[in-house]
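New to this. Please check this record:
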Amino acid sequence: MPRRAVSCVVRRSESMFVPHPMPFACRYRVEVEALCKIYRKLVANASLNSKALAASNPGVIAKAGSSMDGIDRSVFRELLHSTFDIVTEETLMERIFCAWEKGYEGLPIRLEGWLMGLSTFLKGSQAEKTAFCFRVYDLNSDGFITKDEMFALLRNCLIKQPQDEDPDEGVKDLVEIALRKLDMDKDGKDYQEAIAEEPLLLEAFGQCLPSDRATMSFLSTLQA
């Protein structure tokens, strides 16, 4: 008897979204002051670049409300690549940006969101990092990581050969392996439980956290 298709693979755990009891800003004053300076510099530089672009292209009309209210996609992606050594494909870059500040998905990152997001990136607990990765992988933000979402996240990981009859077959195999690892009992087990049992699965669908080396290097600059 063929196995019934499973659409909901891993659900979120409500405990994953409990606010941090002691915000980053309260615990690390020196680091926060340095992060605020970096934020203001990034926003100011982006604003200058925008004005320079507008000046060199008189025919370009700036969109209403397009003045920098925060860190936009292009600045954020460059930061992920150059500062945190996150080299990943376009879909994940966009998802990291959208998941960075809960409640402000897709909007320029505000100062508060910048600080809280970096709290997870730099000194977050396992539960906080798990919650962040889940938001990144939950492409439609419905509280589940489905097989279709797994496929979308993993399809760019394999090199497809021209002679392959079904170039996506290898991706489908990866999805089935991930399904068995994350939801062995087909019971919609929550993501937090799966990662607690096997921490190496935290970034199973692509890198969305900085390496330890990049984290330590960035933290050292905040103390300078």
